[in-house]
Amino acid sequence: MRRALSLLLAAALLTTISGCRDRVDLENVTLMLMMGLDLDENNKLVIYASSPVFSKEAKEKNEVTQVNAETLRDSRGKLEARVSALISTGKLQNILVGKKLLQHPGWIKLLDLFYRDSKTRINARLIAVDGPVGEIMYFAPANKRRLSLHIAKLVDTANERNLVEKATLFEFNRQLLERGKMPIITGLRKTKREVVADESILLDNSGMYVGSLDLEENEILQILQDDQISDLSLTFLLPEQGANKDKALNLGALSCYVVDVKRKVRTGYSDGRFRFDLDFRLPIRLTERLFSFDVQKDTAQLEKQIDKQLQAQMKAVVDKLQKHAVDPIGLGLFARAYRYRDWKKVQDQWGEAFKNADIRIRVRTEIIDMGEIR
């Protein structure tokens, strides 16, 4: 009797356990790994979708579909009318946005679907494309893995080496809500042979495109932000050692790793403008020196030459950011923390306040390792 009651109770419990009622077989799903957003020649929104093909009979390993639509949700039905299975965005890796679209006010509202739909992956990378998005979406390199996975790894690696900034959908939304620091995302472009991640895209607080930073400028930005992920590798052309950009061979060049960034920021306010004094101390390791120099004997002299070049590069990056009235450094966070009353007056126009700010930079490097040879 007890055994019968136990079996009856177990059967009753099994009926209440949630199962896999919404399970879908892999062959019945189109896994969208990469999505593209751009404007065509008629300024109409065009949506691209890239999905892997698992069939042994298929000659291509990726399926790319494009449609014109009013919104991302509107494109869903049009895309599913062209693919052989239901579309799933749960494994989305990259979202490519054309620079042409980035220059249109309100484009970020198109991203509402990603934040509202719980089945969408908000850790997907948001990437700007210099040129038509379709050129990358339909690109099929013969010596690379699936393009969507290749681009994801390419961006991650470039970011880990401090070459470009990276923002996921989640991080991008946080950047938009932060008034004291402006958004910055990865920039891609396609050459004849490959896809290259070699710039970071500057956006204002509304998400509109205002400019870009190249690889060297982004490395300098990492120092200004005190946000390097790994050792920074910098190369300097020292005029004191005969370096000249017009030469075929620059034997006055020196390369080093920035081991750490020690930054102090002092914030002030006078005559209606903010003032920021940025003091940097950088321990460095020499990795390359193409000229003769007794580093052990004249360390201080070489450090001064490096300081001069690095300070000039940092000032050039800050001048560029102020010209575009964008603050990806995050100096607005210091203004809010230490000069709140003054910050509150300009919090909705921080870009202009940053543009007019007095920013002074002081750099002191310290050579802690000259390498295995003198």
Automatic annotation (TrEMBL):
Tell me yes or no: is Secreted among this UniProt entry's keywords: no
Q: What Gene3D superfamilies does the record point to?
A: Nutrient germinant receptor protein C, domain 3
Tell me which GO cellular component terms the UniProt record holds.
membrane
Q: Which GO terms describe its biological process?
A: regulation of DNA-templated transcription; spore germination
For the Sigma-54 factor interaction domain, which residue ranges apply? 186-282
Q: Name one GO molecular function term.
A: ATP binding
Keywords attached to this entry:
Germination, Lipoprotein, Membrane, Palmitate, Signal
Answer yes or no on keyword Signal.
Answer: yes
Where does it reside? Answer: Membrane
- Which stretches are transmembrane? none
Principal cellular location given in the protein's record: membrane
Show the InterPro entries listed in the entry: GerAC_N, Sigma_54_int, Spore_GerAC-like, Spore_GerAC-like_C, Spore_GerAC_C_sf
Q: Topology with regard to the membrane?
A: Lipid-anchor
UniProt xrefs under NCBIfam families = spore_ger_x_C (TIGR02887)
Q: Please give the family membership noted in the entry.
A: Belongs to the GerABKC lipoprotein family.
Name of the protein: Ger(X)C family spore germination protein
- This chain's source organism reads Paenibacillus sacheonensis
